[in-house]
Write a structure and sequence with these properties.
Organism: Litoreibacter janthinus
Shape: globular
Structural class: alpha/beta
Helix content: 25-40%
GO molecular function, one term: ATP binding
Order of helices and strands: EEEHEEEHHHEHEHEEHH
Strand content: 25-35%
Number of strands: 10
Family: Belongs to the ABC transporter superfamily.
Keywords: ATP-binding, Cell inner membrane, Cell membrane, Membrane, Nucleotide-binding, Sugar transport, Translocase, Transport
Bound molecules: adenosine-5'-diphosphate, magnesium ion
GO cellular component, one term: ATP-binding cassette (ABC) transporter complex, substrate-binding subunit-containing
Largest sheet: 6 strands, mixed
Amino acid sequence: MATIKLDNIKKSFGKTDVIHGVDIDIKDGEFIVIVGPSGCGKSTLLRMVAGLETVTSGEIQIDGARVNDDEPMDRDIAMVFQNYALYPHMSVEENMAYGLKIAKTPKDEITARVAEAARMLQLEPYLKRKPRELSGGQRQRVAMGRAIVRKPKVFLFDEPLSNLDAKLRVQMRLEIKELQSRLGITALYVTHDQVEAMTLADRMIVMNGGVADQIGAPLDVYSNPKTEFVAGFIGSPA
Ligand code: ADP
Ligand code: MG
């Protein structure tokens, strides 16, 4: 479990300013959703927390310690992407175990953690299958499993459900929320879908062109939008 602090985070690619100074204090176990239209900087912000992009200025802290210069592997973070990026030649079991093997986790420990994740995600019947033999929802569960087995301090999600059909998206959304609150792992979740944000978030960050227009509980943002942009974006149906 972990707190995360973003202190005046800015990002430029060359001469283009993409993130203009974002501040937020994230509590231990909180589910934060970053929502906004395509191109507003959601993924960039998340990738800076993950350590996959450098921070141009400002500070990122996890549990009070500056992590700006820490390698992704050292940040105790697990990330789930939209295209699950499973290894096609490996079974479900091997996909979930792979990161732990790389980290030289003892074999018994790997077996135990994979079994536990498979149970939580109802993947036990599919452990020997290859990703191509799974449905979209099952693949998404394997991607979740890969994140869970690492017992990270923080979960990062970048539009993890965008490739699923509407019905499955709603179901997986509930599963993610349930799992996150059961494990109590602090989560940062990116989506362009207002409904998804409203359903999942303890607090949401509404991004507009690299600026956090508003940060607050979904109902608060919905009933008291601070800017015209927020009113239009949150008020309009998905
Ligand atoms: P979102 O995830 O909200 O759709 P992104 O964070 O992917 O937005 O992108 C925000 C802006 O930064 C976009 O204008 C995008 O073109 C730009 N951008 C993202 N990554 C790079 C990069 N590696 N080099 C240059 N520009 C980038
Ligand atoms: Mg994105």
